[in-house]
Each structure stands twice: as C-alpha cells, then as structure tokens.
Amino acid sequence: MRDGEQGGARERILGAAIEVVAREGIEALTVRAIALEAGVNVAAINYYFGSKERLVEEVLARTLENGLGEQLRELDAFVEAEGGDVRAALERFVPAFFPDAVRYPRLSAAHLHDAIVRQDYTGKTVQRYRDFLEGFFLRVRPVLPAGSEEEQRHRVAAFWSAIHMVCLAPRLCEGFVPHALHAPAGAAPFARLLVRQLLGDRPEAQVRPRGSKRRRDPA
C-alpha cells in the first residue's frame, strides 16, 4: 500500500473515531463501531494505531488542539478587530464560541472523562487544559481588576468553569432561564455578565451616553 493510501486510511479511521465520540460518547467507542464507521476491517485499527487506547489518545489530542488552540487564536483575532479592546472582544468571543462547542457536548465530556468519572487529573488532557488557562490568563491579565494574582486567577477559573458547564450540559438551565444560554438570545447577555464578573464594571471614564461626542480640548 502506498504512503498516500496509508495516510488516507489512517485519517479516515481517526475521523470515524471522532464522529463516534461526538455522536454517542466515548463509552461507545468500540473497535467494531470505529471499523463500521470508517468502512474498514477491525484489524486495520490495530495496524494503523497499535491499539484502541492509542487511537483514543489521538482522538482526544486532535480534538483538544482544534478546540483549545483555536479558541485562543479566535480571541486574538477578536482583540485585533476591536482595536485592542479586550472587553469588547470577549463579549463577541463567548457567543461565537458556543455554537460549535455545544454541538458536540460528548466531545467535551470525553476530554474530561477521567477527571469527572475517575477523579484522575494526571492525564495529558488536563495538563493541556491548564496550559490553555495560562494562555488565556496572560492575554487578559493586563485588564483584570487590581488584586493579588490568586484573586485574578480565581476570576479566570470562574469564567471558564461557567462556560464549560454550558458546553457539557447545554440544556441544564432550560426552564429556569427564558433563553438557552448557548442560543443567540441567551448567549449575548450571558457573555456580558461573565465578562463583567471577570473584568469588573467598565470604568465610567470610558462610558459616554449614546450619541454624545468626545469633547475636544480648546486649542
């Protein structure tokens, strides 16, 4: 088999495994289910990955990088588009983040499976998540309210804990709030609330009545 064909088959198996997890959860990720989804025989999975456990590692690594890495890149793009206004960027970033995240809650659950089910926080996924928090913290730290570093880190932890609870269980608050927190009507006010909790109220000096013009100092 040529290298290109091998690479294509390997990617097809990996994509099939991701699809099974996204649709049915990591518990449904059997070798037979993967083979059926990918249209290959069971032996091909061991041939390309060595074991199902190795395939699971690659599924989590691939989807986590696509998720967490892409989130930071998107935030950077929003900050640039808002001329460096981190608050405005975050108020756009959170609602934009939800649609893809809540479309695949089982992937979010798979990433945190060992932490949630086994209370095991030693895996690569948890470390990658903590690295992500560090990256986010470095980006927002200059605009966080004054306080100790511990207080600032607690703000970031609370911010992302709320967001990822919606990702894990997007309909949890249904019936308690009028609009789903991940839907457009609910996401925008939810984002503003989270950003205010993270960054505090916008300084009054930066807030002008709608329609007012910036006063110019006399020449």
TrEMBL record:
Residues 7-67 form the HTH tetR-type domain. It comes from the Bacteria. The keyword DNA-binding applies. Keywords: DNA-binding. InterPro entries: DNA-bd_HTH_TetR-type_CS (IPR023772), Homeodomain-like_sf (IPR009057), HTH-type_TetR-like_transc_reg (IPR050109), HTH_TetR (IPR001647). Residues 30-49 bind DNA. This is TetR family transcriptional regulator. It comes from Polyangium sorediatum.
